[in-house]
Amino acid sequence: QQQVKQSPQSLIVQKGGISIINCAYENTAFDYFPWYQQFPGKGPALLIAIRPDVSEKKEGRFTISFNKSAKQFSLHIMDSQPGDSATYFCAASMKGSGSRLTFGEGTQLTVNP
Amino acid sequence: DTGVSQDPRHKITKRGQNVTFRCDPISEHNRLYWYRQTLGQGPEFLTYFQNEAQLEKSRLLSDRFSAERPKGSFSTLEIQRTEQGDSAMYLCASSLGWAAGYTFGSGTRLTVV
C-alpha cells in the first residue's frame, strides 16, 4: 500500500522559474512531512520539513505548503537554478513510529540554464 | 564530525554469497536507520535502532537479513545467501530523537550477479 503519492515523476523548468512538486498522503496519523533532495551517488539530504499545525513554511527559496483537509503538501522552489537539478522526495512519518519515514516515489527536476 | 559514513561504497557479489555493510552514524545521534533504495524509487524502511536496541523491522527484512548495533555506536547490515533481487542501494541514516530530521550516508550500492 503506497501511503505517499508524489507527482510529477519528472519536471523541467527554466532558470529563474518556479518548480512545484506535489504529494498526497492517506494516513491521517502522519504528523511530520519532510522533503529530501538527492544528487546522483549521494544519500538524500533534508531540505525542509513541516508539521500539520502550520499551513506554510519557508526557508530561503524553498517553501512547503500544507493542506491538512485535502491531505496534500507541496514543495515550491522559487528562482530555480541549474544547481537545483536533482531528485526530490517527499516523505511522512508519525509519532510512535520511531520516526520511520514513508517516502514518495521521487521527482526528477531539471533546471535548464 | 563528517556525517554518516558507510562502507563499502560499492559491492559486487555473486548470488548466494554473504555480504556485510557497515554504517558509522553521527556520534551523538541515538537513532540509526537502514533503508533500501532501488533505481527510480524512494527509499524503503528496513529497520531502526535506538541506541543498541533494534526496535522495529520491516516486513521487507526477510530472515536472510540481520542488523546489529553493538554498544549503540556503529551498525552492520548482513545479507546472507544474496539474491539478484537484493541489488539496490542500502542507505543508513541517523537522528537525535524522534522529532529530528535524518542525516543520510551516501549509501552502499550492492550488485548481485
Tell me what the structure shows:
The complex is a heterodimer of chains A (113) and B (113). With 113 residues, chain A is mainly β. Chain A has no helices and 11 strands. In chain A, the strands form 2 sheets. In chain A, strands 2, 4, 5, 9, 10 and 11 form a 6-stranded mixed beta sheet that branches. Chain A has a 5-stranded antiparallel beta sheet with strand order 1-3-8-7-6, with no helix packed on it. Chain A starts with a strand and ends with a strand. The relative contact order of chain A is 0.34. With 113 residues, chain B is mainly beta. Chain B is built from no helices and 11 strands. Chain B has strands at 5-7, 10-13, 19-24, 31-37, 44-50, 53-57, 65-68, 75-79, 88-95, 103-104, 108-112. In chain B, strands 2, 4, 5, 6, 9, 10 and 11 form a 7-stranded mixed beta sheet that branches. A 4-stranded antiparallel beta sheet of chain B has the order 1-3-8-7, with no helix packed on it. In chain B, strand 7 and strand 8 form a beta hairpin. Chain B is globular and about 40 Å long. The A-B interface holds A 6, 32, 34, 36, 41-46, 49, 89, 91, 95, 97-106 and B 4, 31, 33, 35, 40-45, 48, 50, 55-56, 91, 93, 95, 98-107.
What keyword list fits this structure?
A: 113 residues, mainly beta, six-stranded mixed beta sheet, five-stranded antiparallel beta sheet, B: 113 residues, four-stranded antiparallel beta sheet, 11 strands, 50% strand, globular
Helix count of chain B?
0
Amino-to-carboxy terminus distance of chain A: 38 Å
Query: Outline of chain A, from the CA principal axes?
Result: globular
- Biggest interface, residues from each chain: A-B, 24 and 27 residues
DSSP summary, beta strand count of chain A: 11
- How much strand of chain B? over 45%
Compute the average pLDDT of chain B: 92
Query: What is the radius of gyration of chain A computed over CA atoms, rounded to a whole number of angstroms?
Result: 13 Å
Secondary-structure element sequence of chain A? EEEEEEEEEEE
